[in-house]
Structure prediction request, 308 residues.
Amino acid sequence: MLSHYHASFDVGDENNSHAVMLRLVGFNKRVLEAGCASGHVSEQLSAQGCEVIGVEIDPSVVEPALPWLERVIIGDFEGDTVWPQLEGEFFDVVLFGDVLEHLKDPLTTLREAVTHLSPSGVVVISIPNIAHADVKLALLKGTFPYSESGLLDRTHISFFTKESLLQLVKEAGLAVVELCRVTAAAFHTEIEVDREDVDDAVLRAALADRESETYQFVLKAVRDDGDHALATLSSDVVDLTDRLYDEAKRNEMLSAEVIELTLKVEALEIQRTSDAKDLAHYRRQSDAVKRLLPAPLVQFVRRLISRS
Prediction:
């Protein structure tokens, strides 16, 4: 049986969390994949030459993943059933793809994962952003609409913004070396918020936040060895990522404005052409009328017009 989280995806899509995680994991690594489900990510990890040990809490969904896994551990990270089976094992990558938000105590799990990293190992995390505009707008309507998956998956028990995610990573003894965003525009998530129900001023306020359209954060982190240079580098990475994202959003807005202005110019040109045709038509009609009127009457009309 396939997990209801099972999903096909384009590995080249940089706006897909699975594709971004695969890029951050890389090739030919030994990977501990938390929440492997029925193997939609495991298969791609295997295709990248990785050796994968999967961890899954639901035994009914793992069979399709078995061809891609070295082995699978059935258990709960918070139930003392996983880590004892991994004693003495180390990994190049520990992958938490939309898993930590399902845990009561994600910090303890993440700290334990750090102890299973090889000397140059990394942790890759994907996590939904509770500060997405659609969540805020739903709250303003007095709703918090849980669903089977997505931002408000009914099994989520921990919720994260960018700042609380970075704090979690720091407290686990890790330093971020790459931060990515998967985005979804307001009113384009599984949360059903009707644009017609949202006042323009409220919408502007909701979209003013940098992370208003961030659907998921995906990051890579290394063990923080206490080196000041590493801490500074990690901070610089996050700051630079934020600035690049802001610049991309500004460019996107400018492009939209250019398109809007181009359309207005095209509309004005069409209107000018139409007006010119109308004017030529009226002139032809005027000339025809003039030819039918006696000359004295034409002169009389001209005098009246000149006096008015």
Summary: The first strand starts at residue 30 and ends at 34. The first helix runs from residue 17 to 25.
